[in-house]
Amino acid sequence: MTAQVKREIPSYICLAILLVITFVPLVGMVLLSFKTNAEIHTNFWGLPRDWNWHHYTLAISRSYIYIMNSIVVCTAATAGILLLSSLSGYVFARHEFPFKNTIFMALIALLMLPAVLTLVPLFLLVRDLGLLNTRWALLLPYMAGGQIFGIFLFRAFVAEIPRDLFDAARLDGANEIQVYSNIVIPLSLPVLATVAITSMFGLYNDFIWPLVVINDPAKQMFSVAVTELANDATVDMGVTLATYTVGCIPLLILIAFGMKYFVRGVTSGALKA
Amino acid sequence: MSSHQAPRPPLIQRIWAARISYLLLLPTLLLLGVFSYYPAFSGILYAFQEVEPGFDARWVGLSNFRRAFTDEVLLASIPNMIILLVGNVLRTTILPLIVAVMISHLSGARLRYFFQTSFLFPIVVPMMVIILLWRGFILDPNVGMLNQFLGLIGLEFLQQSWLGDHSTALGSVIFVGFPWIGGIGFLILYAGLLSIPASVMESARMDGVGPIRRFFTIELPLVLGQLRLVIVLTFIATIQDFGGMLVLTGGGPGTATHIPALHMYFYAFRFEQFGYAAAIGVLLFVLIFALTVLNLTLLKSKMED
Asked: Are B86 and B175 members of one domain?
C-alpha cells in the first residue's frame, strides 16, 4: 500500500501543478475584480487591500438584463428540446411504421451538417421570415438543432424499458399521451436531466448565432453582450472582471445540481465511438 | 396482436394505420425541415448566386467559387487554419490524455473524483468570458498576467504584445486556455480509459509492464476510438468556430490570425455579399466532410494493424 502511494507521488505533483495553472485565471479574475485600477497596477498579485464590493453591485446592474435574456432563452429552448426529443425518441423506440428507418437515418444525417454551411442561409431564412431581432430567431433554430442528440438518447433509453410495461398500460386502455406521460417521462428522468443540462450549457455559451440575428441590445444574450461590456473603458477593470464573475453564476448553479448529468451527456457520445 | 402469416396490407393502409406515429413526429420533422434541411439546400443554391440587399438574387454559375480561389485574403488564411488544426489537435489530445491516464491510475476513488471534478470545474466560466479573460488580463501587454509574471521572475526581455504582434499572434491564440484540460476531450478520453477492463490492467501489472509501455501497448490502442472522436470534433470546431478569433484578434494583425470561417462572416455580415459567403460555407463544409471521412478511415486501418 505504501509502495503504491509512493509510486503515485510523481502523478500527484504533476496533477497538482496543472490544477494550479488551470485555476490561476479564475482565481485571478475573482481577486482582481475587487481591486481599483490603481491597485491592479501596483498590487497585481496580492490580495485586494480593500474589497470593493460596489464593483459587484455595478456589475450586476449592467449585466442583469443580458443574463436574464440568456436564462429565458436557454430555459424556453431547453423545454422545447425536452418535449420534442422525448416524444420523438419514444416514437422511434416503440412504434412500428413505414419508413421509420429512413426517417431516422435522415435525422442522423443532420449530425454531419456543420453550422458553417447553414449559418448564412439560415440567417437569410430568418430574415425573410421577419424574425430578426425577436426571441423566435433564437428559439426555433435552437429547438430544431438541439433535439437531435436528445432523440438519440431517448430512443436508446426507451428501448430498454421492458415491453410488458407498455403492453400492460395498453391493456388498461391507456392512450398514446397517457403512455408517454405516465410511463416514458417518469422513467426517463435521468435522460431528461442529461439533455437539459447539456443543452443549457451549449446554448448559454452560444455566441455566433445571437451575434448575427439580434441587434437590439435589450434583447441580447450575455455571451454576446459581455464582449461589448468588456470594451467599456468608462468603468474600472475590476467592474469588468466582476461582470465576468457574475456571468458564471448561472453555469455554476447548473453544475452544482447537475455535474453528473453533464458528464453523462458528454460521455454518452463517446462510448459509442 | 402480433402479425400472423397473413399477407401484409398495402403500404398506404399501413401508413394510415400508423398516422398517430407520424402525428407525434410532426413537430420534430417540421422544425428540422424548415430550420435544418431547407437552409442546407438553399445554402448550396445561394453559393451559385449573387445575393445582395436591394437586388434580386441572380444566378452567377461558378463565379463565387472562382473568386474564392483567387481571393488573396482567403488564400492567406488557409495556412493559419492548417496551423490551428495541428495546434488544436495537439492541445485537445496530449495533455488531456496524459492527465486522464494519471488520474485513472490513482488508487483512491475519492481522489480520482476530486481531480476529475476539479479539472472540469472551469466549464462554469462561459466560453466568451475565458476568451475575454485571456485577451484582456493574461495576454494583454500592460496589465496581462503573462507579462506581469515574466517581469516578476526577471524575464522582462520576453514581454510581448502577444496578440498584437505578427510573429506571436497565432501562437498566442493556440495558447489560450492553457493547460487545456477541462474540456470535453478530457471527459471523453477519461471515460474511455475507465471502460478498459480491470483484468487487462491487472494482468499487465502481473507481467511487470511499466507505465510507459502500458500506455503505448494497452491504453493508447484501447482509447483510439475516443481519440478519433476528439480529433474529429476538434477539426470541425477549428474549421467552423470563428467566434473566439473574432473577439481575440478579429483576424489581425493584418491577416496573421485570419481564418476562412471569419472571412465568410465578414463577407456575409459586414459586406452583405451573401452569395460569396455561402460559397465559402460550402467549401468549408466539403473540407469538414473530407477530413472527417479521412480521419475515420485512416485511424480505423491503423487500429486493425
From this structure: yes
Q: Which residue of B12, B26, B32, B97 is the best one to mutate when testing the A interface, meaning the one whose CB has the most A CBs within 10 A?
A: B32
Q: Domain check: are B15 and B94 in the same one?
A: no
A118, A136, A232: best to mutate for the B interface, most B CBs within 10 A? A118
Domain count, chain B: 2
Is residue B4, in this structure, part of any structural domain at all?
no
Most B CBs within 10 Å: which of A43, A116, A208, as the mutation test of the B interface? A116
Q: What is the pLDDT of residues A124-182, one digit of tens each?
A: 999 999 999 999 999 999 999 999 999 999 999 999 888 888 888 888 888 888 889 98
A168 in contact with B, Cβ within 8 Å: no
What's the complex ipTM? 0.92
Going from the N-terminus, what domains does chain A have, and what CATH number goes with each? Answer: 53-270 (1.10.3720.10)
Q: Which residues of B touch A112 (CB under 8 A)?
A: 289, 292
Are B49 and B142 contained in the same domain? no
A87 lies within 8 A of chain B by CB? yes
CB contact under 8 A, B102 and A14: yes
Q: Measured between beta carbons, which residues in chain B are less than 8 angstroms from residue A208?
A: 241-243, 265
- Domain, as residue range, for B36: 11-64
Query: Looking at the structure, do residues B81 and B52 belong to the same domain, yes or no?
Result: no
Residues of A in contact with B14 (CB under 8 A): 97-98
Nearest residue, CB atoms, B124 vs list A91, A124, A252: A252
| pLDDT, tens only, A202-260 | 999 999 999 999 999 999 999 999 999 999 888 989 999 999 999 999 999 999 988 88
Q: Are residues B52 and B82 in the same domain?
A: no
Of A237, A250, A256, A245, the C-alpha closest to A27 is A245
Residue B20 to residue A29, Cβ atoms within 8 A = no
In a domain, B3, yes or no: no
Assess if residue B5 is contained within a domain.
Answer: no
Indicate whether B34 and B144 sit together in one domain.
no
